[in-house]
Every structure is written in structure tokens, then in C-alpha cells.
Amino acid sequence: MTLLELSTLLLVLTAGLAFLNARFLKLPASIGVTVGGLIVSLLLFGLSALKVPFAVQMVELVRAFQFQDFVFQGVLSFLLFAGALGVNSPALWKLHGPILTFALISTALSIALVGFGTYGLLSLFGLHVSLMYCLLFGALISPTDPVAVLGMLKQAKVPERIETVVAGESLFNDGVGVVAFAVLAGLVGAGAHAAGGHGSEVSLAGIAGFFAQEALGGLVLGGVLGLLGYLALRAIDDFSTEVLVTLGVVLLCTTVATNLHVSAPLAAVAAGLLIGSLTDRRPLALSSHERHEAFWHLTDELLNIALFSLLALQVVGIDFSGRSLLLGLIAIPLVLLARTVSVVLPFGVLSRRYSFDPYSRRLLIWGGLRGAISVALAFMVPAGPEHDLFLVMTYAVVVFSIIVQGLSVGRLAQGAAQSAARQAQLN
Questions:
Q1: Interval 293-310: pLDDT, tens
Q2: CA of 349: how far to CAs of 176, 339, 353, 367, in Å?
Q3: How far is the C-alpha of 292 from the C-alpha of 53, rounded, in Å?
Q4: What's the CA gap between 392 and 385, in Å, rounded?
Q5: With contact defined as beta carbons under 8 Å apart, do 223 and 84 qualify?
Q6: At a CB cut-off of 8 Å and minimum separation 6, what does 196 contact?
Q7: How far is the C-alpha of 417 from the C-alpha of 185, rounded, in Å?
Q8: Residue 98: which H helix or E strand, with range?
Q9: What burial class does residue 3 get, using C-beta atoms within 10 Å of its C-beta: 0-12 exposed, 13-18 middle, 19+ buried?
Q10: Distance CA 404, CA 34 (A)
Q11: What mean pLDDT value characterizes the chain?
Q12: Where are the alpha helices (DSSP H) in 21-66?
């Protein structure tokens, strides 16, 4: 199948799923295309088992598709940049303490809790998987997906202060999770080399240095490219050129970060926050602030729909077994429990210094949706029996998160909005 044929097929399928959702299901776009994609995947499974040529070819096509490359080298930086552009930067800076605490401490706590919990769970089922591999699963499943979270916040219309905390934590913790995954994957690889007699050594200083290089390097790179992009925007007065400049900034964040071995997601977030903040302060830097926002909003919506439709189709590329599916179902409450503990503990400490709006803690916990980033990272787990097992477990958690949490978090957000309205009336 040629690249043109593949692109046409995927685009038509995505458009079809979006149409069916808008016409019949009427669910939020990301949830609707996920549900539709899962139904299509189940049909393909059945037809493929019956040896229908088209279905067999489609299954082979999806299995050959490099979903992780599509996420990390394709759409993720654009989605994060678009999300960061829409965040209220002054409000974000006022709450930078809680946001960074949740992004760093909560993510680290969740990785540890999920990792040790998974190790114990697999041991109960007689599966001897190393603790390092289990922590690797904790790293890929702990970060919330900013694409899913930001989409939920836009529709829920929660109070701005709550939105800032939830959105800010999600924008940064995915970068932290990706870096933690890279560190642990390196440790897993080093352990394998050591077991093979290659004598690889890993030091705490080396781990800290790698983390600092990835995380801080990504933020610095994004800041530099964001500043250069803003200076270019201020020097011109042409909408088309301004769009090209911002597109160039995003692509540079991904390309340069990949070559410098720093975090591309964090670079995209930093660039988006900086450009958004500076253009808000100087609206005349853009020829049309409204058209610029409309372009990135449309880009965000289209890429979001495409990402979730492809995420749903990836189910045909996963080898399920009864035991792995059962473990995936058990992993759902385990991950939710880890998320609860990792939010509640820092929240209790931070509450002594910061005042949080009602529902903030509940929205942080239940609104911490998992999505495409976790699945993409699961595809990158080193080859072996752990790879297939963790892929199934990840997919079970992600599908539950998108459909069950995604459909119910709106009511929680409405409660937050109503509570804020009542509080405003009392004041």
C-alpha cells in the first residue's frame, strides 16, 4: 500500500468515525471516536478470524503502523504547544508551586506505588517480572494525558483557578513521565547488559544528570525557541507568515530536542507558554489574535480526533490473552489508587500554604485521564514477554480512563462550577 493510499484510508476512517459520533453518538469528540474505533477494531478482529482478505490486510497494516513515532515525532508537540498557548500564563505562574509539586512529586509517588503494586500483583499470578520492569510500567501509566485532560477542561468550563492547576499539572507531568520512562528503560537495558556479562554500571549521579539533561534541557530549549518565535512574530504583520513561524517553532522543538537528547514534550510546552504569555501582554505582536487562536484551536481539534481514532485502532495490534486481560482489569483500580494517594498526600501539605477551590482535589484525581502517551510508551517497552503483558494492561487502563472517567468527569466539573458560583454569590 502506498503512502497516499495509507493516508487516504486513515483520513477517511477518522472522518467517518467523527461523522458517526457527531450524527448519532453525540459524545465528546475524543471519547466518541475512541468508542467508534473500538467497534471497528472488534469487527476487524472478527472478519480477520474468518480470513476476509480486506480485514486481514487492515490488521497487518495497523500492526505495521509505528504508533509511537506518530505520537512522539508527529502530533504530540503540536497538541502540547496548542494546549500551552491557551493556558492563562499569569495564573499558572501564581500557582507554579502546587503545579510543579504535583507534576514532580505526585508523578514520582505514582510511579513507585504502581511499580511496587504491579510487582506484587504479578507475583500473585506466578509471573516473575523484575521490579525494574514493573517500575517501567509505573512510569508509562502514571502521567496523565494532557490531550485528553485539556479537551475535558474545555468542555466542562470549570473555574479558572481549578483549570489552571489541573491543566498545568497535566502539561508538565507527561514530560516528567516520559523522562522517567527513558531513565528506567536505560536502567533495564543496563541490567540486561550486566546480566549478559557486559559489566555496565549505573550511578545515582548519572541518573540525576540524565534526568536534568532531558527535563531542564527541554525547558531551556523551548524557552529559547519560544523567544525567537515571539521576536519573529513581533517583527511581521502577516497572518500566514505568523502561522508558519509558530509551526516552525513546534517542528524545531521536536527535531532539535531529538538530536540534543532533551525532552521534546517539555520544549513544546515551554515554547507555547512563552509565546502565549508574551502575545497576551502585547496583543499587537499578532496581526489578528482571534485568527491565530482559531487556527491553533482547529489544529488541536483535528489532531486530537485523529490521535484518538488511531489509538482505538491499535487494539488490533495487541496480542490479548485471558490472563493478561484479567491483569489489565485489576490494574485499573491499582492505578486509580496510586493516583489518589499521590495527589492526596502532596495536597494535604500544600493546603497549609495555598488555598484551593472546592473540587480541586477530586478533579485532579478523577480528571487524571490516561491516553495515547501511555500506549505509545507501552509500545516502546523492550521486547520480551513483559512488552506484550504491559501493552494489554496499559490499553485496559487507557480505555477505562477515556470512556468511564471521560464521560463522568463532566458531572464533577459541573459540581465545581456550581460550587464556585455559590461561593461568588456569598461573597
A1: 899 988 988 888 889 998
A2: 21, 16, 8, 21
A3: 45
A4: 11
A5: no
A6: none
A7: 41
A8: helix 96-101
A9: exposed
A10: 12
A11: 87
A12: 29-49, 53-64
Alpha-carbon Rg for the chain in angstroms: 21
CA distance 72 to 206: 25
Cα-Cα end-to-end distance for the chain = 64
Decide: 165 and 98 in contact? Cβ < 8 Å. Answer: yes
Which has the minimum average pLDDT: 47-61, 395-409, 411-425? 411-425
DSSP string, 261-330: TS-HHHHHHHHHHHHHHHHHH-GGGSS-HHHHHHHHHHHHHHHHHHHHHHHHHGGGGS---HHHHHHHHH
For the chain, the domains span 12-426
Cα torsion through 392, 173, 209, 204, rounded to 10? -60
CA distance 178 to 258: 13
| Helix residue ranges, H only, 157-285 | 160-195, 204-235, 239-260, 264-281
In words, the CATH class of domain 12-426 is mainly alpha
Instruction: Count Cβ atoms below 10 Å from residue 221 Cβ, excluding itself.
Output: 23
Give the tens place of pLDDT for each residue, 342-387. 999 999 999 988 888 778 898 899 988 898 899 999 999 988 888 9
Residue type (1 letter), 42: L
Residue 30 C-alpha cell reads as 475524543
Q: What is the pTM of this model?
A: 0.91
Distance CA 382, CA 2 (A): 29
